[in-house]
Each structure stands twice: as C-alpha cells, then as structure tokens.
Design goal:
Layout (H helix, E strand, L loop, with lengths): L2 H4 L5 E2 L8 E5 L2 E6 L2 E6 H12 L9 H19 L9 E5 L25 H18 L3 E6 L10 H15 L3 E7 L5 H10 L2 E5 L4 H7 L9 H12 L5 E7 L7 H12 L3 E6 L10 H14 L3 E3 L19 E5 L3 E2 L8 H6 L10 H6 L35 H21 L1 H7 L1 E5 L5
Helix pairs in contact: 4-5, 6-8, 9-10, 10-13
Length: 441
Amino acid sequence: MSPDVLNKDVFRQIEGVSPPVFFRNAGDLTLFYAPGYLAAARKREAEEITGILSGALPFGEDMTPHYLIRAALSAQAIWQQMHDPENYRPTCLTLYTTLDCNLNCSYCFAKAAHREGVRLSKDLIMAAAREVAGNCREKGEPFTAVFHGGGEPSLDSRLPDLLTDLQWICKQAKVPFRSYIATNGVMDPEKARWIAAHFDRVGISVDGPPELHNRQRPLRNGSESFRILERTIKNISRISENLSFRVTVLPENFGRIPEIAGFIAERFDAEEIHIEPVYHQHIDADLADVFCESFLKAQSEKPAKIVSSGSRIGEVHGRFCQIFRQALHLVPPAGASSCFAVSSQEEAEEKQLDPMQDEALFEKLSREDPDCEHCFNRFHCARGCPDVCPALSVDARDAGSFRCRVNRRLAETELTETAERLLFGPARNYGYAGVKLREDQ
C-alpha cells in the first residue's frame, strides 16, 4: 500500500513544519496533533495556528502552537535518546529461565525451542541483576524483574530462590524491587497461591471461552487446559488484585473479539484485557480492518478496559525491541536477546540478535522504513514488529503491513474520540482547545 493511500483521511503532516505537527479535518473543526498534545480549532483559529507553525505568522498569545511544537520536540528528543546505544543502561531484567512448557499451543513462536531441563544460568542471572541494580541506583529508578519465557516460568523449581536473591541484591543496592510474572496458569493450587503472594503483578494468558481456549492452548498430551487455568485464576484472585489478562487472537477469530472480551470480563471479573493478534504468522493486511472493527466494538461495549500494545499514544515508543525498552533480556542456557520472541541462546546467536555480541545491533534495529517518515503515528508505534524486523532483513517494510494498519487505525480512533469527548465543545465555544496526552508533558 502506497504512502498516499495510507495517509488518506488521516492526520497529515503540515508541510514545512519542523519538528513534525499533524492535522486533519473534523467537520467544522480542525484537529492538530503532535505526539503528546492534541488540539481542536475553528476555521479562523485553525488558519492562524497553521500560519504560526509554518512561519507565515509570528507567535502570539495563543499557547496552542507552543504546546504543539514543545510536544513534537520532546518526542524527537526521547526518540533519539531511546535509539542511542550510549543511553542503554537497563533498569529491567527480563528472564526466560526455562524452556520447559506444559502446553502445546497451536501458535507458539517458541515451540521449536522447548527442551526439557534447559534452564538459564543462575550465575548469569545474578551478574546481570547486579549490573541492572547499579543502573537503577544511578538513575533513581526501581528494579523491575520480569519472569516470562518461551517456556513456562512457573515450572522452574528455582523460582522462589531466584526471587529471594534478586530482592537481596536490590536491598544491597538500596533500590525498590518490582516483580512481574507471565504464566499460562497450568499449575497446582499451592503454586498459584505462592505466586499471588510473591509477585507484584501476574499476567495470565486466556484465549476465550473453554472451547476456543482448549483448542488453541491444549496441554502437552492434547487434553483440555481451561479447567486448570480457571482454578488458578480463582486462587490468585483470592490473594492478589494485580492480575492482568492477555488474549492471543488468530485471524479466523478476529470477529469474535467482543465475545472473547465479554466472556473474560464476566467470568473472571477482569478490569483490563490485552488483545493481541498472533505473532509470527502471515496475516493479510486487508484483515486489519476486520480486527479493528471487532476490537473497537469490544471497546465500545466496555466489559473491561480493552487495550493492545502495538500503538500507545500515551508514551513515546517504537518496536518491541528490549534494548529500546531499557531491558536486559536473558535466555537459556546463558545468552541475551534483543527480541522478546527469541527464547534461547542458540536462536539469538543464529539470528544475530544478542546485544552483548553484536555492537551494530542498535543501528540495525533503528533502521526505519522510509514510508514511515511522515506518519502521524511514528513516535508511538511498534511498526510491523515482531513479524517485520530490520535486523533480519535490510529490505524490511513496515508501512502498509497488517500491524501498521492496525496501529494507525487504533491510534487515529483514539485521538478522534479523545477530541470528541474533551475538545469539540470548548473549541466551538472559545475558538480552540487542547489537551496533553503524555504524562511527561
């Protein structure tokens, strides 16, 4: 899909304005957007704002152009810092501690890596933890430990000891400790209660009603997993309120998103549900509209807060690359990875995605599709990641891909709905109105 087609009827960049500011028509009003600030203005005021931004008119008392330029400059600065290897001093330690798994998920990107008994080196974990804790102390930030994986982290018998040792390292460094675990929920009640009591937040994968979940996420022997999952959720919920739900949706189920979200919200009293299209499968770009219509319908029905990670307008971000998220990601048996979808040292080395071994990796992963240059969403979009990776292909193209189109549509809708809710009335009454969208603005 060409940039011209992609940019039709969405926010377009104002020509000659640097840093980039975007606009779109909204009936009798014009919307202006820079990453972090959204404004609406009547026709006369909109012409003045455009004139000021383009340099044809001097800055006056209207603060809207100032706020737009300030937000755009801030986003550019954060983006540059994020992609500068000199600024990579991770404050998050992400651990894929084991390749063991008790499920046989139909879409698992790490299935080929599953090997019983392969675990992450404890010596490496502790050395990395001390380095991360030192960064946290220097930056004045908390230490975040994330237990995730291509395998199931709750199967690692070292989990209690690892958590205790990480807490001790943070205590010695005098930095706050935060912990998160992502789990498939297949465990005995005692382990579920222990996890609920010892982790600050628990993320659990639920793909929908029993028939759908059991089909996509069966046990290793092919039998159903939903009953065990439900028991685990109940045990965790009795102890902790910090439980989040993640749904992986296959293309054939895009139309079922409202049903899936409604089921999870009602069955488990979920407050927030993350809906993600399946990774590492070719998805026809034209299905983006199907996904978005279904996703937005689920949001409108409000069974819970419905979110997706590809575009988050409340923060400046790019791809999911761990090195851009200030995370040190370790994979078994003794490796590191810049990609969350890489689950073993062997795979990280084969794909040359080990940030400890490839000094040019920052430059490779920072490479941009030229067609993204003038996109309103480029400062808060994960591009085609992880399906499209510039480190794996010099010809990688994000623009027009399925995930690009999903991210743009959801971001555009969120901005427009925010304007309708907060800005249209005041703008019609007073000529213009604006709102900050990022906490750091």
